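During the reporting period the student researcher (J.K.) took over the structure-prediction task from the postdoctoral fellow and processed the backlog of single-chain submissions. One of the processed entries is reproduced below for the supervisory committee.
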Amino acid sequence: MQIMLVLDHPVSASFCGALADAVTQGARDAGHGIDFLDLARDDFGCLFQPEDRDYFLGGAVPDDVAAMHARVAAADALVFVYPIYWWTFPARLRGWIDRVFTAGWAYAMEAGGNRPLLRSRPTALIASAGAGRQTIEEFGYGAAMRRLIDEGTFGYCGLTSIHPLLVPDVHESAESRAAGLAAARALPRTLLAS
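J.K. obtained the following structure tokens:
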């Protein structure tokens, strides 16, 4: 089985980098292949460009987007690792989604309403947060993120088997970080069994 892992964090030696490494090791331990995309270091422009708009309006798919389409299509599971910035994912990951989860490929625009086109497969969203779990839920941020990210982005395109892993209090709690790393390492085995 093949897992595509997309990491968005500007620092390799970050906690998000450690979470991505834990997923990678867990995938290898379980005998799965890993296609690792590090948005901060790999050569993929995450800014929506005029050629992306042209593609949206029926033009040719940009070569780099076509290559990402092929990588996503080849994956049996998807894993996204990112810190929570402003109660969502960072701009670079948002830009990757804008450019890759495109109309005509990830969803169809139709008169009666849009229709998802991606085949559903297990999709893990591993997010680190400086805030505690209680704060996230008390102020409705958890529900908002589930609506915007799980349903409004991934579910909209057909990815409905969402497996969120929130690692709260990453700046204050060594226990939370350790539990998050253990869960990330165990994730590939359970993700592809779902």
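The committee noted the following: The CA atoms of residues 116 and 156 lie 6 Å apart.
J.K. will present the remaining backlog at the next meeting.
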